Amino acid sequence: MNVALKKTAIQKTRIPESNIFFIRELHDKHFDATWHAHSEYQLFLVVEGTGTKFIGNTVKPFDSGDLTFLGPNTPHLWRSDECYFEPHCENISRGLVIYFNGAAFGQLIEKEEFGQLKILLEKVRCGMELYGKTAQRTAKLMHELVHLHGMESIILLFRILDSLAKSKEYRLLHDDMVYYQLKDVETNRINLVYNYAAKHFKYKITLEEVAALLNMTPTSFSRYFTMKTSKSFSYFLTELRIRNACKLLSTEEAKNIAQICYESGFNTLSNFNKQFKTFIGMTPTEYRQKFLTL
């Protein structure tokens, strides 16, 4: 069964009419902080920067080297960490993104030679993360693609897609295709909630204050958020905090688990340990040890 959610996103078109595909280099203090969607497939590589990505109803941290492949009309937001928004911050965010329209391939993908590509394009409608040697190889090819034009660029694009189609180094972000009905009137609501939560999750956030952002009562907001995301706001907030803790546990060896607990927005160590094991399936100590032994 498809995940049918009526969450809203700004709909953007990325490809010039004269092109089959388009590759774009991103270079700014932070990535676009707008929840949005478009009809094109998107392959996005984080070259530099850290933060949290919201894809469909999935929340996950991102770091340099993160490679994500999305199908059409899947709302998404790569929200850079809060430090990237500070006026005097010298950090930058860089990325490479390829957009292409499945219709541009016409009847090609119906031919036997393109069977694997057809399967790949169906899979990515669930959202796909690439890792390992596949991600490294794809990143290298994407950097090469920036400098190519004409037939050479098309050939390299198909090399990339062929490599992804044959790879087993991937994780699907959803169990099934995520379908969204896009309504512009709700776009600001989703953006307000996601960006507010991403900015303030380290502190106490009450249902009353987040409901006030949308001029709703707490009860109305709670019902609205659950309907749009298939999860309660408290679950979403805990998920956001746990993902931040995962990032710190794997990258900040100097910080102890108690520090990470409080920096991720939890009030007590016991609650942090309990919630972490519920979400991740292991304790924070076990999770950290997994990275230390790599």
From TrEMBL:
Entry superkingdom: Bacteria
What SUPFAM superfamilies would the database entry show?
Homeodomain-like, RmlC-like cupins
Q: Where is the HTH araC/xylS-type domain?
A: 191-290
Does the record bear Transcription regulation in its keywords? yes
Molecular function (Gene Ontology), one example: DNA-binding transcription factor activity
Alphabetized UniProt keyword annotations: DNA-binding, Transcription, Transcription regulation
The name under which this protein is listed is: HTH araC/xylS-type domain-containing protein
Recorded source organism is Parapedobacter pyrenivorans
